[in-house]
Amino acid sequence: MPRYEVPSLFEPFRRLGDERLARRTKAAGLGLSIVRAVARAHGGEVTAEPRDGGGLVVRLRLPGT
Fold first, then answer.
1. Measuring CA to CA, which residue among 12, 18, 59 is closest to residue 39?
2. Per-residue pLDDT tens for 6-43?
3. Please, are residues 58 and 36 in contact by the beta-carbon 8 Å criterion?
4. Domain assignment of residue 30, given as a range
5. pLDDT band at residue 45, thresholds of 50, 70 and 90?
6. Domains: count for the chain
């Protein structure tokens, strides 16, 4: 995944990947946007970085952790 695409994954209904696969799943592309909203509501943040072998490393930071 290109690094420049990562921020858009936190937008509602945004998914990346094989479009044919995306049509076969029932996922709506809301997961990371919900995580971001919950993190912000609690004074935290969530970040994501692409891994060299594919996929993402997602980090959630909340106050006091």
1. 59
2. 888 888 887 766 554 445 566 677 889 999 999 999 99
3. no
4. 3-61
5. very high
6. 1
